[in-house]
Write a structure and sequence with these properties.
The structure is a single chain. The mean pLDDT is 81. Strands 1, 2, 3, 4, 5, 6, 7, 8, 9, 10 and 11 form an 11-stranded mixed β-sheet that branches. By secondary structure, this protein is mostly beta strands. It has one helix spanning 77-86, and strands spanning 3-16, 21-25, 32-36, 40-41, 45-57, 60-72, 89-95, 100-103, 112-119, 127-137, 142-144. It is built from 1 helix and 11 strands. The longest helix is centred in the middle third of the chain and has 10 residues, at 77-86.
């Protein structure tokens, strides 16, 4: 089936799924959502990337999303890492044009977050964390209309 890559992710925000108030309208590919909750901004470095793929399984389409980006190794990074790994979170992804997508909802299945420590081999020796968010669902990433 189709694969889409969306380079140019400029911001990633999150909140705990249990605290999210999400209202979805429409069906599947034309679904939109409103999100009412205070979202926390992740301090991403540069631009992130989002990949969406579709596959058929047991008579329905399954959507897999993968978002990758880097965050700095700073005093707040440890708390951020622990929060997004330990809790079921929803993520709001904003691209360079301003389009916003919701990854995860206030119900299962929740996104899975992996964080890896990186130390670039440069004279400056940049130290940062590579974050990968993956989500598989029978609903594609939902467009957010109220943010």
């Amino acid at each position: 089936m189709a694969n889409k890559t969306l380079p140019g992710i400029k911001s990633v925000e999150y909140c705990e799924a249990s605290q999210a108030a999400i209202v979805c309208r429409g069906l599947y590919n034309s679904q939109t959502a409103n999100v009412w909750n205070e979202l926390k901004q992740l301090p991403i470095i540069g631009q992130g990337r989002m990949e969406i793929s579709e596959s058929a399984a047991t008579g329905e389409v399954i959507y897999s999303s993968k978002i990758t980006f880097n965050i700095p190794d700073c005093s707040e990074s440890e708390a951020i890492k622990n929060e997004i790994i330990s809790n079921d979170c929803c993520f709001v992804i904003t691209d360079m044009i301003g389009n916003r997508k919701l990854i995860g909802m206030d119900r299962k299945p929740h996104p899975v977050v992996t964080v890896n420590y990186l130390n670039e081999e440069t004279p400056a020796g940049k130290i940062l964390y590579a974050v990968e968010i993956t989500h598989t669902n029978n609903i594609p990433p939902v467009t957010i209309t109220n943010l």
